[in-house]
Fold this protein.
Amino acid sequence: MRHQKKTVKLGLTAAHRKSLLANQVCSLIEHQRIKTTLAKAKAVRPLAEKMVTLGKAGTLHARRTALSVLKQKDAVKKLFDDIAPRSAGRKGGYTRIIKLGQRKSDAALVAFLEWVDAPKPMAEEPQPEEKGKKRASKSPNADASSEAGSKPVKKAKKTAAAKEKKEADE
């Protein structure tokens, strides 16, 4: 029986699991949101929340403790300077897991792990494509074949003539 054994093992050795979780937290700090399997997201969440709690303390000891776990100076700096102050008014629950369904390749459950207080990403407006542009031909002889009156050109002329005829009938 696994009573009081709360470590999620993820099928990894202890050193590999520790490294994976630290790297996932660093990615979360850097990108504000990560896409991973649901099991890994549930395993990363407690470590990420502990790191934010250390960041809120803001002491040198807390910074060194976070650095000993995460092993990346830039991630610890961003954690203490940006993420922890954003979560200062919150007593816990700094992350959220958004389930995305199953991955197509192996049917693993996938989820987003993100900060609750993260700034909203700017929605980029899709740029309208210009209509009527012709694709550039990859063939070096394309110009010669179009000048010589190849079949695709004749077909295009026929369809254009057919359209003109329909318009004239209407």
Observations:
- DSSP finds six helices and three strands in the chain.
- The longest strand covers residues 95-102.
